[in-house]
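Q: What residues go here?
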């Protein structure tokens, strides 16, 4: 029995050493034994946490202060020297708010620009709104070519955008495209369209972005149904 025990111990030790080597631990890192299961003292643990995390700026709770913050802060997702700041357009209490994805180079520094904006104005007019009655915003107020929005940046953008919607307090909200639809409703436009949702108290739909509709005109009929649903009481 004793021989079997020694053999078993040797096999376990060999297996453990083999796992360490495969994981890249092939050199000694200390002369003294260390209890790796022991938690560090509270002060040391707090210092370790502070060394690997950074605290974001507080999001202003006032509309005017919030807009100034968007104009000036560098503590915003996608903020970089090569990024272009794209600011929202409109006034608080808007009849309708349009939330779209990160602006592209085709948007000319506007939340929605170029031919997509011309189509957007026609869509608004079709449901009885002028462009001046709409509030336009992007998920991020920075446009950075070649940069995708995801992970912690996306989480921060959603946090900021929710506060944005709450401060604007629109009667109706349109989520244009898969980016905003996933961010707020947890699914693509195809999965979330043709339904009424609530985001920060606003009556909300998800539908195809204007630039998508320019490339796929056949989906305009579906977008029109979504807009009619938004206007139902």
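A:
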């Amino acid at each position: 029995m004793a021989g079997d025990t020694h053999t078993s111990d040797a096999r376990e030790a060999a297996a453990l050493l083999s796992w360490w080597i495969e994981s890249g631990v092939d050199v000694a890192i200390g002369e003294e034994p260390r209890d790796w299961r022991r938690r560090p003292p509270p002060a040391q643990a707090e210092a370790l946490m502070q060394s690997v995390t950074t605290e974001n700026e507080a999001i202003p709770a006032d509309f005017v202060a919030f807009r100034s913050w968007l104009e000036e802060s560098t503590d915003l997702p996608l903020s970089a020297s090569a990024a272009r700041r794209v600011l929202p357009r409109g006034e608080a209490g808007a009849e309708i708010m349009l939330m779209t994805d990160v602006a592209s180079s085709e948007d000319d520094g506007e939340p929605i620009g170029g031919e997509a904006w011309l189509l957007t104005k026609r869509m608004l007019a079709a449901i009885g709104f002028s462009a001046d009655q709409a509030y336009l915003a992007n998920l991020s107020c920075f446009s950075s070519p070649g940069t995708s929005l995801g992970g912690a940046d996306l989480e921060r953008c959603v946090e900021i955008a929710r506060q944005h919607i709450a401060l604007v307090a629109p009667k109706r909200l349109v989520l244009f495209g898969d980016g905003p639809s996933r961010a707020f409703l947890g699914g693509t436009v195809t999965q979330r369209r043709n339904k009424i949702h609530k985001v920060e108290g606003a009556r909300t739909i998800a539908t195809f972005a204007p630039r998508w509709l320019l490339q796929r005109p056949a989906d305009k009929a579906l977008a029109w149904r979504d807009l009619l649903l938004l206007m139902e009481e």
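A: Context that may help when evaluating the design: The radius of gyration is 26 Å. DSSP finds nine helices and seven strands in the chain.
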